[in-house]
Amino acid sequence: MESETKNSRLNRMETILQEKFQPVSILLRDVSLEHAGHPGMTKDSKETHFRLQMVSSKFSGRSTVENHRLVYAELGEEFKKGLHALEMDLSAP
User: Fold this and answer.
1) Helix, strand, coil content of the chain in percent (nearest 5)
2) What does the DSSP 8-state code read for residue 23?
């Protein structure tokens, strides 16, 4: 696997989500610039805030909270490495 310096957080997250959820559709966007100037954000803050829209059969029969927990569990390492916020719109086909 590529090193973290060569592989952006966006790419790492997309890879994880594709592998774990085999989505019908996925749109993951870096919206970190929308949070510039917020407390805790510095000029060096990069790839901290993301917006995810994903459709996957893995979400069938689960509540919104359960679906969010599934995604958070898979992306736990990214949160430990500086991911601050993930806005999610998750659904089943």
Assistant:
1) 40, 20, 40
2) -
pLDDT in tens, 14-52: 999 999 999 999 999 988 865 555 555 555 556 788 999
The rounded distance, in Å, linking the Cα atoms of 52 and 85 is 11
25-30 and 49-55 beta bridge pairing: antiparallel
Residues 6 or more apart whose CB falls under 8 angstroms from that of 26 comprise 14, 17, 18, 52, 53, 54, 55
User: What is the spatial order of strands in the sheet that 49-55 belongs to?
Assistant: 25-30, 49-55, 85-91
